[in-house]
Amino acid sequence: MRMVDIIQAKRDGQELTKEQIDFVIDGYTQGTIPDYQMSAWLMAIYFQNMTPLEISVLTDAMLHSGDVLNLAKIPGIKVDKHSTGGVGDKISIPLAPLVAAAGAKNPMISGRGLGHTGGTLDKLEAIPGFNVDLTEEQFIQQVTTIGTAITSATGNLAPADKKIYALRDVTGTVEAIPLISSSIMSKKLASGTDGLVLDVKTGNGAFMKTEARATELAEALVRIGHQAGIKIVALLTDMSQPLGYAIGNALEIAESIDVLKNKGPADVRELTLTLGAHMLIQAEIAEDLPTARRILENRLADGSALAKFKEMITAQGGDASIVDHPTKMPQANHTIPVLAPKAGVVDQMATDRLGVASMILGGGRQKKGDVVDHAVGLVLHKKIGDKVAHGELLATIYAEEPARPDVVDMVLAAIHIGDNATAPKLIHHIIQ
Predict the structure, then answer these.
(1) Residue finishing a domain among 281, 297, 326
(2) Distance, CA of 61 to CA of 23 (rounded, Å)
(3) How far apart (Å, rounded) are the C-alpha atoms in residues 238 and 119?
(4) pTM of the complete model beyond 0.85
(5) Which of 65, 183, 191, 256 is catalytic?
(6) Residue 68 falls inside a structural domain
(7) Which one of the listed residues 81, 82, 116, 374 is annotated catalytic?
(8) Nearest 5°: phi and psi at 173?
(9) Does the active-site annotation cover 168?
(10) Residue ranges of the alpha helices (H) in 234-345?
């Protein structure tokens, strides 16, 4: 069997066999298939798609490219959450300690930045000392004792996905539904979870720009979950503007802390509570969504969710004092104001361009192996539906240089001011 023949078969729209897909995943994992051939295969998939059977086989091959975690030592039902990614999407950071404070066991395998979106692991590494590379033993022990841990797919857990994930980011193949769904579900199934709540983004800041494409992805993910026998639900949520106001690693950690202090942006708080409520139902801690939500609201109000976050930071080697002193995280050297060129109402945002602006500042990766600057990013001061006066502050850029006219221009081009607008609906619909 030759890799070039498999590339050509998929390029020409043929359905690949299990043997062909296994050959590709085994070869790339072992290093016998080079990046350039894998890149060509990923691009062929991007243009030709895959059948449901191919996606199932690909997920299974990636799942079994390494170890599968056995979480039997952790008592109770294990539940997890995954987002398909967006700009300002820091939901996992307040969500994990919140559901753990409510009594759920939440083993969370997370990823790094992909394309214009920020990664949970990159954000957590803005916390001095925070270790996102737990061993299997450390991971199981931490979830058992404090209820949650957020780690990378370390060691030999879905190693094929880890390699492909990095390659997709720099080859323009992030948005392919077969690659997204197999990536997400191979990691989640390998992590041994019993239940999974999916946050599938739709809008100009998501990889799935239209609701139809987002629905297609959500249905593919839910189908894989049902085939694997886990509890699963997908929520289609809005990404026509950033979540919250902060875009950038340390900036988003600070905003997450605000949510855990029972404050923070309304959209981040609402989505955290909604996703968390579904997780509590899967964990059989609550029978219905209103009850689950009340439990979570109480955990925010009584401070136990914030205390759990401190506990999680300490357990993973980080400096928990950043919760009360966020300036202990990396700080940008300069702030640059972005002023409104005219009066009106913010009616549209090119959300992906705001993510790219943060990436160009150093907050994400433009190529494989780039080092992330945790201090830089943007803070918005207006969202869709907000009135703005001429010369009023639209956003603040956090940068290492005193002037970044290129980024100022990008931000101005990404925020459109019109005559009227209403805030978009946060949660579109649910697929089970």
Answers:
(1) 326
(2) 9
(3) 18
(4) yes
(5) 183
(6) no
(7) 82
(8) -120, 20
(9) yes
(10) 249-260, 266-282, 289-301, 304-315
Residue 74 corresponds to which amino acid?
I
- DSSP symbol at 116: T
**How much is the average pLDDT of 264-274?**
98
**Active site annotation includes 187:** yes
* Distant-in-sequence, close-in-space partners of 158: CB < 8 Å, separation ≥ 6: 62, 63, 65, 66, 186, 187, 190
Would 397 be classed as within a structural domain?
Answer: yes
> Among 112, 163, 168, 299, which one carries the catalytic annotation?
168
Residue ranges of alpha helices (H) inside 113-176 are: 120-124, 136-146, 159-169
- pLDDT tens digit string along 124-163? 999 999 999 998 899 999 999 999 999 987 667 778 888 8
In angstroms, what is the C-alpha Rg of the chain?
A: 21
Given a contact cutoff of 8 angstroms between Cβ atoms, the answer to whether 234 and 110 are in contact is: no
| Longest distance between any two alpha carbons in the chain, whole Å | 65
Q: Could you tell me the strand order of the sheet in which 79-83 lies? A: 79-83, 195-202, 231-238, 427-431
Asked whether residue 144 is assigned to any structural domain, the reply reads yes
CATH of residue 199's domain is 3.40.1030.10
